[in-house]
Fold this protein.
Amino acid sequence: MRTSSGRRHLPLHAILVVVGAVMAVPLLYAVLSGFKSTDELSRNPVGLPDSWVTSNYTDILGSGAFWRLVGNSTLIAVGTTVLVVAVAALSAFSFARFAFRGREVLFTLFTMGLMFPFAVAALPLFLLLRSMGLLDNPLGVILPQAAFGLPMTIIILRGFFREIPGELEEAATLDGCSSFGFFWRVLLPMARPALGTVSVLAVVTSWNNFFLPLLVFTEDTWWTIPIGVQQFQGQYSAQYARVFAYLVLAMVPALAFYSVAERQLVGGLTAGATKG
Amino acid sequence: MTSTFLPDKRTGPGLTPSPAAPGAGRGRARRRALHWLTALGFQIPALVLFGVLVLLPILFALYAAFFRWGGFGMPSDYIGADNFTRLFDDPVFLGDLWRCLVLVVLSLAVQLPFALAMAVLLNQKLRGRAFYRMLFFGPYILSEAITGVLFGMIFAPDDGLADQILGRIGLEGLGGEWFAEPSMVMATLFLVMTWKYFGFHMMLYLAGLQSIPRELTEAALIDGANAWQRFRSVTLPLLAPTLRISVFLSVIGSIQLFDLVWVTTAGGPDHHSETMAVTMFQYGFKRYQVGYASAISVVMFGISLVFALAYQRFVLRRDLQGATTTMRGDGK
């Protein structure tokens, strides 16, 4: 295979270039359009900008509203991640290292959570959060996100915890370690790669969540980036160029995060989908 | 291989054994109880969180679906199965079911085979394959809201990029109103879904392809199998477990589709792109017919459940059989 010449691969490269163009053009188009004025965008929608207008981008970056969205999204993503990873780690530890009556029933209960669309629970969840006074409160998004993230996180962590040899636990017990001591001082430090994977998954899921913040945040105080994008488009629908600039800036954090955490993200998604 | 949604009967290595001390019955019983309480203690935070915020709402939807209820106070106007009979007379909801089926069929017939082809392509030693993998997968990590707004503008009639490009290459006839045209809206939506999601399935397949031992395809090559035969008889059967998971995720995704539709069309024009989740949202949050909206949730729940159980029973089960027969077939 390696000896085959580059020429043999030419048709394959042609396919990749075409598909790559279809994937990249919408993104490049958004970036370039953000550098045009709305007038120019309607005159010259496809080509490079005549003069590069930076005010669309700088206006948004100079406004507190955008940074507030970034701050809200960050706070909610971090809160969700810390909560779901902590709670799931305790549960996965118990599933992986204890034999106890009811374990399989309980584990099946959690895994069933993966099968059900969030939309099924959305309406009663909204009513529950309203009765708990959690509307327009970041906890109203953090707590349900953590709850819905539990199944996947528990499954991945349980798989990892089971691979740590039993001798380690025996040694720790002989040294006078309690169950929790073993979990806290031995297991968690060893599980850092797995914790990284599930954390990255939780951050991305929270960052992109649209449905739940849409229900919970009726006022703009706690809006996250996805809600902000939709609202901004509604507000400035005639100013195309500005909306494109806004979209591009809204994409940057997720893409930057992806570029630094690609390995954990892809590893986590494939592990979550294929390992039980 | 077990899938994430199957109950797992294996016991892991290094399990803390149930203490079966030889001592007196009472001491043993006490220690067992203690062991059980410790194990369960670690589960309490997860149980509380999951029970209150996942299970309770789902159970409550099952209850509320049998009432005429506006969402304030407790439901009291019990109407039996009326919400459900109304649902299956509602042309919008029947349309939702039909559109869900259309998206499932399109995903399985077009999107997943395309993802597989790209995975096979990028599994070869090609210049720039790391770049293409990243580019194809990239859209998956963008928010649906951002994707939706972006493509809403790209498919804007006349001014949008899509119509502009088609106009310049002399294919105006192919363009049009996209999201605004009843006959085109589902095709446009599917195009956007493919742009956003095929990279995810491609990544799953790539992981699956990389776990296939190179010796197997090489052995087939020596036996004189051509590229298609090698793919058809070696790669595809060994990739089957990954394919089955990917099909499952794709179907569940189609059943609950909301964000992308809500941002691009909100179900329009005239319900032509509405999904079950959008209809549920309209009734539950805009018209305050919470009992009726709950009935939609229950039907979504039922469809997911029936599909998941049937899929486990009839499709995923074959993974075991497949594994043994494949091994026998290869062991010549």
Remarks:
- The first strand of chain B starts at residue 67 and ends at 68.
- The radius of gyration of chain B is 25 Å.
